Amino acid sequence: MKSKILLALAIFSMGAYSCVSPKKLEEAEAKYGQLNGAYADLQGKYRDAQDAISKSKSDAEKAGEKTKSLQSIIDDLNKQVDFLKSNNNVVLSQLKDMSVVTGAQAESIKKSLDNIGAKDLYIQGLQSSMARKDSINMNLVMNLKGAIGDLNDGDINVKVEKGVVYVDISDKLLFKSGSFNITDKAKIVLGKVAKVLAAQPAIEFMVEGHTDSKQLIGNGSNLMEDNWDLSVKRATTIVRVLQETYGIDPKRMTAAGRSEYMPIAENNTSENRAANRRTRIVILPQLDQFFKLLEKK
Description:
The chain folds into two domains: 1-93; 133-296, CATH 3.30.1330.60. 65% of the residues lie in helices and 11% in strands. It has six helices and five strands; from the N terminus they run ααββαβαβαβα. A five-stranded mixed sheet has the order 1-2-5-3-4. α4 (227-244) links the parallel β3 (205-210) and β4 (253-259). The radius of gyration is 54 Å and the shape is elongated. The relative contact order is 0.08.
């Protein structure tokens, strides 16, 4: 009987265990899932906290470096302030030493200021005179170009260089080859130039003869030994025409020969040699008037 009772209890216990165990298992699994999720959440927070700590350390290092840089700038500025204060004291000391000016020193200072003012007026006067001279030169150039405007620029050229007016006339308009006798066409050209020069009686000028590098064969008939002779005789021929035909005052003129030694192109082609054979009229600067201006100052 006892064995039967024990058997019945064993069977009952097994049934009870089979009914309760799955429920507890599900609860345990749910609890595990909650714990596992909480653990993962804590791990994420931990990582965020670690990142925040790292960033704080980096920001702190940068802030320290910036503080050092700002402190260095402040130190430099303080040094500059100290330097300026020191200089200011020196200047103040010098001003105190200069505060007492004698009558003689005051008069000397006044004369110096007067001289500065006079020199300033003198410079202004020179500038005004130079501007007037440039204006006269430009007016002369425009008149010359207007008078000879129908001629080829390659045969006659008017220009201003360094404040001096030049009129270059090709020798093919004035002379035959190797000769200093002028052509009929030359009188037309010289007449136009002479008309402008005659309207400016205060202007003095120089007539220069220029040749190429080809040497002349001297003989008794042409009275020329070399290019020096040819350049000079061509210049004197032009001067005589301006004087005798067009009434230019000879006191205003100078005749000069440059021979082959001031070419405007190399004497290596026929075109270049033709360009070098020319007569140049140089409007001379009025130095006497300039020196008178200096004497007045």
